[in-house]
Specification:
The chain is an alpha+beta fold and 295 residues long. The chain is built from 10 helices and 14 strands. It has helices spanning 51-62, 79-84, 131-135, 147-153, 157-166, 182-190, 201-210, 246-258, 260-270, 277-294; strands at residues 14-17, 32-37, 39-40, 44-45, 67-72, 91-96, 103-104, 109-118, 139-141, 196-200, 215-219, 223-224, 230-231, 234-241. Strands 1, 2, 5, 6, 7, 8, 9, 10, 11 and 14 form a 10-stranded mixed sheet that branches. A two-stranded antiparallel sheet has the order 3-4. It has a two-stranded antiparallel sheet with strand order 12-13. Strand 12 (223-224) and strand 13 form a beta hairpin. The chain is elongated, with a radius of gyration of 19 Å. The two termini are 24 Å apart.
Amino acid sequence: MKALTKPLGAGLVAVTCLIGPSWAHAANSEPLRICAAADELPFSKQGGDGFENEIAKIVADGMDRDARFVYVDEPGIYLVPNYLKKDKCDVITGVDADDPRVATTDPYYRSSYVFVYPSNEDIEIDSWDSPDLKQMTRFAISPYSPVEPKLRDMNKWDDNLNYMYSLIGFKSRRNEYVRYDPQTLLGEVVDGNADVAILWAPEVARYVQASDQPLAMEPVPDTTTRRGEALRFSYAQAMAVREDETELRDALNQALKKKHDQIRAVLEDEGIPLNDLDAASRAAAGAAQATGASS
């Protein structure tokens, strides 16, 4: 896995589960069993309110199969080791397209982290060097994200710790996974308790749209630390299968292509800012060529 990526669990919320030793042996008439986190909005929710729930149903339809959800109580971060790797599930949606633990489909969208702040105040933030950002002291973020090392690099992390721990009742992060609810984090900005939220856009876009207070949502650009370490803030999202399940991956790719417009409509309705996948692919290819030429 990448050393620095989006918060684990930001997208691992929809998993397709099949009974039997291999997807290849399942009849196309069988339902596509979809495991999803039971309570991890905006990605997934028992009852189907998450946008990844919708996308999973669209993809199942594209494969001429019925979607049947199996909701699990574990957070999405555990779905790869506890379900996919143990053959309990066969497909996961919403993983990074270059996740080395799995075989991934073609990406179906790309988005980024965003700066979220009141748009009706005299504030403007579009980069890490923005003067308004440098003056801020309280940041609503998800730990383990690339925002954390950047705040450390800016000498703003330690001063922010007590505030962040207060949001989860000062629970220890050492021995347990604690999810910072994105709606709560956004509410901190609306209520004036946080100066800015810096979050993965897909997890917060729904709440920005629904907010009574107008909020700006500006993409976070990639950057480097003072020591020259690269920090990425945009990621392509794909579906994942076990490494040897190439037939299923190919079938998913066909469904993703067939249902492209419907999937994009779900993402746009959610309010997620979408980056150009083709441009991102060209940029990655160019970077790879440059690295090869210099070696």
